[in-house]
C-alpha cells in the first residue's frame, strides 16, 4: 500500500499519495467542567474584530494577568501586505480583553530590515511565533528561513528520496521585548537556537524537572523523510543559544494511527527504509512523515505531556505524547490522537478566569467546492490535563465563531 503523508503548507512541496483506510477513532473525551468566560465591556473602536474575521495559522495566546488582556500572536503569511505589516513577512499581534473581541493587527516583528550577516533572510514569512515570559521579559520563539546558496540534500529517508535538492534552510530564533506588545528583536541574528544544519521549525519552551529551560522543536520531514521531534537545552539567561547536542524524542511514523492507516508499522520505521516491508508499503516518490507544532504541559503527577500535529489520510491530525518520567529527554510514549478534523498546531493556556483552553487552527488542507483552499481560522476548546494526557472538552463557539467544529467553512 502506498504511503499517505500530505505535503504541508509550511514546507517544500512533496508528491501526494492515495488515500488509505479509515483510522481507528479515539475514545470520546472525558467530560470537562465548563465555565463561561465573562465578557468585559469593550470599546468597539478598540476591539472591532471577532476571531473568525481573520485568518489564523499556528496561533499562540499569552494571557497576561497584569494587564487583564490576551495577546494573540500569529504569523502574517501575507495576509496584510503593507509596509506597516512587513509587506506580509511579519508576526502580528491581536489584543483582546475577553477572547471575543480583538484589536486590529499590529506588527511586532518583521523582516523589513534584516541585519548584515544574519543567518536568515526575507525569502518567506516568519512561522509559528510563541511568546513566553521569562525573568521579567518576553521571549519570542519564531521560525525563520534562508535561501540556500550551496547544494544540500536530505540527510535521511530512502535513497530515492535523498536525491532531491533542498532549496531553503530553516531554524528557530529567539527574539526579546520588554512588553508583550513588542517590538521584538532577535537576540543573535547570526545563528538559530536550534542546530544550524538542521531543518528545524516550531520551537516551544519546556521546563525540565530541574528547572532548566529547553526548546522542543520539529526536525522537518523535508530533511529526514520521517520527521522527528527533538529537544535542546537553552542558555538560561537569554534562551537564545542551544547548549550541547540535541536529544531525539520521537519520530512522526511512531504515531499510533499509522498501522490503521496502513502506511507504517506499530512503533514506526525506526530508520529502516531498506526493508521489504518499507518498499511494499511506501511508494517511491511519496511524501514524508510530518512532525509539527509541539506544546507541553505538566500533568498532576508530574509527567510531561505534549500535543503535536501530523497527517492522517491526507489531513492534519492533532495527537499527543507523554514522558512519564517528567523529563524532557523522555522516554516518550505516543497516546491516542485528540482530533481528526484537519486542525492542528495547538497550544494550551489558562484564561484569566481560570478555564484551561486549547487553541489551534483549522483547514490545513481542505478546499471548498470550487477547489480553492478554505481559510484557516482559530478554533478553541476547553481542555483538561490529566495524568494520562490531554482531554478535549467543550468546543467554544462563543469565542471562535465556528458553528460546526468538524467543518469550518
UniProtKB/TrEMBL annotation:
InterPro entries: GH43_arabinanases, Glyco_hydro_43, Glyco_hydro_beta-prop_sf. Pathway: Glycan metabolism; L-arabinan degradation. Pfam families: Glyco_hydro_43. Residues 1-41 are annotated as: Disordered. Residues 1-10 have a biased composition (Polar residues). It comes from the Bacteria. Keywords: Glycosidase, Hydrolase. Belongs to the glycosyl hydrolase 43 family. This is Family 43 glycosylhydrolase.
Amino acid at each position: 500500500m502506498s504511503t499517505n503523508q500530505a505535503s504541508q503548507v509550511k514546507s517544500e512541496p512533496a508528491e501526494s499519495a492515495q488515500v488509505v483506510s479509515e483510522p481507528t477513532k479515539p475514545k470520546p473525551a472525558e467530560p470537562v467542567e465548563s465555565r463561561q468566560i465573562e465578557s468585559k465591556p469593550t470599546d468597539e473602536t478598540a476591539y472591532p474584530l471577532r476571531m473568525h474575521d481573520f485568518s489564523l495559522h499556528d496561533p499562540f495566546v499569552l494571557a497576561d494577568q497584569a494587564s487583564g488582556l490576551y495577546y494573540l500572536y500569529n504569523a502574517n503569511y501575507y495576509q496584510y501586505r503593507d509596509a506597516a505589516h512587513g509587506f506580509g513577512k511579519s508576526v502580528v499581534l491581536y489584543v483582546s480583553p475577553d477572547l471575543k473581541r480583538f484589536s486590529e493587527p499590529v506588527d511586532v516583528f518583521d523582516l523589513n530590515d534584516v541585519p548584515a550577516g544574519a543567518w536568515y533572510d526575507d525569502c518567506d514569512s516568519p512561522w509559528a511565533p510563541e511568546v513566553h515570559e521569562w525573568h521579567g521579559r518576553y521571549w519570542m520563539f519564531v521560525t525563520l528561513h534562508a535561501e540556500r546558496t550551496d547544494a544540500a540534500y536530505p540527510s535521511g529517508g530512502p535513497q530515492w528520496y535523498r536525491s532531491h535538492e533542498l532549496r531553503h534552510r530553516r531554524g528557530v530564533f529567539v527574539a526579546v521585548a520588554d512588553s508583550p506588545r513588542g517590538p521584538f528583536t532577535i537576540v543573535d541574528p547570526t545563528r538559530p537556537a536550534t542546530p544550524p544544519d538542521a531543518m528545524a521549525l516550531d520551537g516551544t519552551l519546556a521546563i525540565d524537572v530541574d528547572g532548566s529551560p529547553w526548546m522542543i522543536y520539529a526536525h522537518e520531514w523535508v530533511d529526514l523523510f520521517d520527521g522527528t521531534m527533538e529537544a535542546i537545552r537553552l542558555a538560561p539567561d537569554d534562551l537564545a543559544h542551544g547548549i550541547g547536542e540535541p536529544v531525539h524524542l520521537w519520530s512522526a511514523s511512531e504515531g499510533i494511527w499509522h498501522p490503521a492507516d496502513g502506511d507504517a508499522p506499530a512503533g514506526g520505521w525506526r530508520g529502516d527504509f531498506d526493508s521489504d516491508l518499507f518498499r511494499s508499503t511506501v511508494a517511491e516518490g511519496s511524501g514524508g512523515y510530518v512532525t509539527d507544532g509541539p506544546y507541553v504541559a505538566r500533568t498532576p503527577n508530574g509527567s510531561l505531556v505534549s500535543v503535536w500535529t501530523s497527517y492522517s489520510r491526507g489531513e492534519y491530525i492533532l495527537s499527543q505524547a507523554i514522558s512519564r518520567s517528567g523529563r524532557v529527554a523522555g522516554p516518550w510514549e505516543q497516546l491516542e490522537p485528540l482530533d481528526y478534523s484537519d486542525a492542528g498546531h495547538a497550544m494550551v493556556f489558562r484564561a484569566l478566569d481560570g478555564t484551561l483552553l486549547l487553541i489551534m487552527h483549522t483547514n490545513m488542507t481542505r478546499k471548498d467546492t470550487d477547489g480553492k483552499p478554505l481559510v484557516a481560522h482559530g478554533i478553541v476548546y476547553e481542555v483538561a490535563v490529566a495524568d494520562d494526557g490531554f482531554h478535549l472538552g467543550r468546543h467554544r463557539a462563543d469565542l471562535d465563531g465556528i458553528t460546526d467544529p468538524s467543518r469550518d467553512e
